[in-house]
Amino acid sequence: MALGRPRAFDIDTALNRALEVFWSKGFDGASLTDLTDAMGISRPSLYAAFGNKEDLFRKALDRYKTEKMAYINEALAAPTARTLAERLLFGAAAMLTDPSHPVGCLSVKGAMTCKDDSLIAKEELDQLRQSFETSIIDRLTRAIADGDLPPDSDPVVLQRFLGTVAMGMSLQASQGATAADLMAVARMALTAWPALR
Amino acid sequence: MALGRPRAFDIDTALNRALEVFWSKGFDGASLTDLTDAMGISRPSLYAAFGNKEDLFRKALDRYKTEKMAYINEALAAPTARTLAERLLFGAAAMLTDPSHPVGCLSVKGAMTCKDDSLIAKEELDQLRQSFETSIIDRLTRAIADGDLPPDSDPVVLQRFLGTVAMGMSLQASQGATAADLMAVARMALTAWPALR
DNA sequence: CTACATTCATACCAAACGGTACAGAAATGC
DNA sequence: GCATTTCTGTACCGTTTGGTATGAATGTAG
After folding, report:
1. In contact, A149 and A140? CB cutoff 8 Å
2. pTM of the model
3. Are A41 and A3 in contact (CB under 8 A)?
């Protein structure tokens, strides 16, 4: 075992609690008191284990990315562009309204509620979003080459449409929309997807 | 003229400045120092003229509603459901990226950045959104009766789709999307609109 | 048992927050 | 000129913010 007094809390569950607080209150909205209360630890313990508030947010975001945004990677692995769109929108509808965690999207709420633009966490959120965007655009351009999308379709516009609907669903979920509500929105959005004729 | 020492600032332009600050920083993100600096007045002058911070936000929201959300009422006055959808989405794309004021939507940014749920301003934002939603739903149900929409279409779903896309466009604008970008999204969303066959 | 390393709890810090007390300044009414 | 009314500027209030100094507590290594 490591030297010194052992840590009295589980660092993994504490991070999960922090993630929930950031997720439901945003970055600025989550005070250190909110965080330490939810995590069941004191301020110095938090700083010793995670760094400052921004570091903690970044670590929570990492966990969020790998655990809660997995549906995006599943969508990227879809065999066709159509199934990519389906998995993305249906997956978003399901995740955003999953009752086992706060509603909405952490990256949306987090980016909106931090006042300082020079915040490193905000840049990281931008990077995260942009990487997903370019991945989707690349996949859709490949779909055109595969004859999987009409040759005159614009991958950038298609991606932006998907992103717009997904972000809009996040706000809808924050305002109380149910999973069924968002599924209906996803179904309607998919009727705008270009058909192979 | 009224009794007492005259006010040294124009109450109307001061409110416009306050609106811009709330619009770009959100409710919590806008500090009293930000507000008084932008309005060019001192704290006591602000409180004497507008009440507290929440009252000021509400008055700024009133102005926003009548001046910047006029396109929604124009959409509601459209002759057909199809033109309603067009005016709503194209109008949103234009307003959200208008360079003469902050990008995005005040009601989205304002609702997201106030931590206290018991805030009266937040309830007012909810009311505002709900009133627009029911107005659109009513208009769309009337459109079905008019034979203006297929009889099997669901006005609630159609409204939620429009609201989702509009809110998503607000976030896209906040992240730097141009007017042309949002117009393309609006055009694609409109291809999901039910056709009369 | 002692030395060492690490965590814990208390108590504190400066800064920023929303909001206000108070006195002086500028107008009107008499 | 004088009382009254209203606004302005300064200086302040208590609370909350993110962040930390400090010493006791608790473990391992010798």
Report:
1. yes
2. 0.96
3. no
Count of residues in chain B: 197
A61, pLDDT greater than 70: yes
At residue A3, the pLDDT reads: 84
CA B93 to chain centre: 12
Tokens of B10: 């124009």
Q: What burial letters (b/e) apply to B64-74, b meaning 16+ CB within 10 Å?
A: bbeebbebbee
- Report whether A165 contacts A189 (CB < 8 A): yes
**What's the distance, CA B128 to chain centroid?**
9
Enumerate residues 6+ apart whose C-beta is below 8 A from A47.
none
Q: Closest partner residue to B181 among A160, A168, A185, by Cβ?
A: A160
Instruction: Report which residue type is found at B12.
Output: D
Distances (CA, A) of A162 to A47, A50, A185, B125: 39, 35, 12, 26
Q: Give A47-58 pLDDT, tens digit per residue.
A: 999 999 999 999
List the structure tokens of B67.
Answer: 């001046």
Q: What is the dihedral of CA A112, A116, A117, A121, to 10 degrees?
A: -70
CA A121 to C1' D18, in angstroms, rounded, equals 16
Average confidence (pLDDT) over A134-163 = 97
- Using an 8 Å Cβ cutoff, are B192 and B161 in contact? yes
pLDDT category, B2, cuts 50, 70, 90? confident
Provide, in whole angstroms, the distance separating residue B53's CA from nucleotide D10's C1'.
Answer: 21
Within 8 A of B169 by CB-CB distance, chain A residues are 164, 168
- Whether the complex's predicted ipTM surpasses the cut of 0.90: yes
Average pLDDT, chain B: 95
Q: How confident is the model at residue B163 (pLDDT cuts 50, 70, 90)?
A: very high
Q: Which residue is nearest to nucleotide D19 (CA to C1')?
A: A52
